[in-house]
Design brief:
mainly alpha; two-stranded parallel ribbon; two-stranded parallel sheet
């Protein structure tokens, strides 16, 4: 089992955060790639929702469902999307700094933007796990800002490239 990250970097706030971190480490060690169920459109919609998930009022609830699905032999994207998770529009009370406004605007822009994520099942699962890991280990906006910079105005983005960018946030070397 990987050692938990030092609290001075970014603490895993509660038991679920620590359990989530340990589950991701376990899934990476297993090297078994679950089958990804869903059409390309559903997968693209899901990955956008994943990126937007930090705006959800209960983002951990969403991630619990995602991680439970990944822990099985397949991740059923249509089943996850049926939950109809709501991403609030506009600014929340916590949006007080310029960088929060910038990231919130980017997350809101994803609603309308048609994005095609290009990659294999392995790259999809790796992106999901790396994104969640980055959210746990660092402040929520850093990894989203990196994704924003990489995506720019593109409508197509290779998951292999996003995974490389997100690897910079894995200072515990889970992957």
């Amino acid at each position: 089992m990987k050692k938990l990250p030092p609290r001075h970097r970014y603490p895993l706030y509660n038991k679920w955060d620590k359990d989530c971190y340990n589950l991701i480490a376990k899934l990476v060690r297993k090297k078994q790639v679950p089958e990804v169920l869903g059409t390309k459109e559903e997968i693209n919609q899901f990955l956008k929702l994943l990126i937007q998930s930090q705006k959800m009022h209960d983002w951990r609830k969403f991630l619990k469902i995602v991680l439970k699905s990944i822990s099985s032999k397949q991740i059923d994207i249509p089943k996850i999307l049926k939950h109809k998770f709501q991403v609030p529009k506009d600014y929340e009370k916590w949006v007080v700094y310029k960088e929060h406004v910038e990231i919130t605007d980017f997350l809101d822009s994803l609603r309308k933007k048609q994005i095609q994520f290009i990659g294999s099942s392995k790259e999809i699962i790796e992106f999901i796990l790396r994104f969640i890991l980055a959210q746990l280990l660092l402040d929520w906006k850093s990894s989203i800002h990196a994704i924003k910079e990489v995506m720019g105005k593109r409508s197509k983005i290779k998951l292999k490239f996003l995974n490389k960018i997100l690897s910079e946030f894995d200072y515990t070397n889970v992957f």
